[in-house]
Amino acid sequence: MPALALTIGEPAGIGCDIALAAWTMRRERDLPAFYLVADPDHVAARARQIGLAVELGTATPETASGMFGSALPVVAIDNRATAAPGQPDETSAAVSLASIRRAVRDVADGRASAVVTNPIAKHVLYRAGFRDPGHTEYLARLAQDMLGVTATPVMMLWCKDLAVVPVTIHVPLRAVPTLLTADLIVETGTIVARDLAQRFGIATPRLAIAGLNPHAGEDGLLGDEEIRIVRPAVERLAALGIAVRGPLPADTLFHAAARSSYDAALCMYHDQALVAIKTLAFEEAVNVTLGLPFIRTSPDHGTAFDIAGTGRANPESLIASLKLAARLAAQERASRSAA
User: Are residues 8 and 40 part of one domain?
Assistant: First the structure.
């Protein structure tokens, strides 16, 4: 299987730090082969700065796996990165985007098995004229541009004990009731069920659908969104043959016995989903983008400008992202072969 394509993320952040640290742990953590899409000089300078004696190898996607045991493969981009740790500069946006485009291009061409993305800084991109709402939307646009596939991306946060999907994501809490629709829940649930089957190898994915209000609305006493929106969506998902339950009270959805009854929980807003998984697995959770025509995982944290270049960044979420990406790529390949 081809190596994984790992983007540099924001060059002033910790993406380079955790990529270097993960590679030094490749044997003890049994990591799949990956290559870093970056400016090689920037990577070498950061390795010296954080005191890691890492051998770097100039690679192509095809040569990355062969050299991975002895050197961190770096596939060079044309853009030079000059940002110091914690200090994004005028090169940051171009480097971030060039790395993402190259990684997606490699997967589209079959030269890489999946995309793993290091964290970007959206405010840096916006200052440079970036027009997409965020990282995921940019990946969806690249899917259209490079593969001709119109994608509806869905964010899932995953760890070995829990998978959660926020139906509405980065919006003010007051806007959630107006944005939440049965169509949105059905579309999200359909994508989640499909990708859990095709990429996670779960024959009959079980979905749990949270209510919006306390006690799932208490039969309308604490809000009627469950009656008007969530329950009809659950019924429509069930009619599609999806194993689904809900609306369920969110306050009893995440204890161990409850978690054993479903494969993914669809939550109505950001914190309803993310508080639970970050409590369970703050340093090991993985951000998985479902609905794309290629596999994409990412560490579930940001650029951490305050510790970039110090050597203190924890690579555990990246390690989990790399392992999950390789697992999903292998499963998807097996599913296609069996079809």
Answer: yes
CA–CA separation, 154 and 291 (whole Å): 6
The answer to whether residue 256 sits within a structural domain is yes
Q: Residue-wise pLDDT tens for the chain (339 aa)? A: 899 999 999 999 999 999 999 999 999 999 999 999 999 999 999 999 999 999 999 999 999 999 999 999 999 999 999 999 999 999 999 999 999 999 999 999 999 999 999 999 999 999 989 988 889 899 999 999 999 999 999 999 999 999 999 999 989 999 999 999 999 999 999 999 999 999 999 999 999 999 999 999 899 999 999 999 999 999 999 999 999 999 999 999 999 999 999 999 999 999 999 999 999 998 889 999 999 999 999 998 999 999 999 999 999 999 999 999 999 999 988 877 776
Domain annotation covers residue 194: yes
Q: Torsion over CA of 143, 145, 149 and 154, rounded to 10 degrees?
A: 30
- Name 115's bridge partners: 5, 296
Half-sphere exposure of 156 (CA within 13 A, CB side): 33
Same domain, 8 and 142: yes
Alpha carbons 61 and 35: distance in angstroms, whole number: 7
Domain, as residue range, for 40:
1-151+301-339
pTM equals 0.94
The domain tally of the chain equals 2
For residue 296, being part of any structural domain is answered with: no
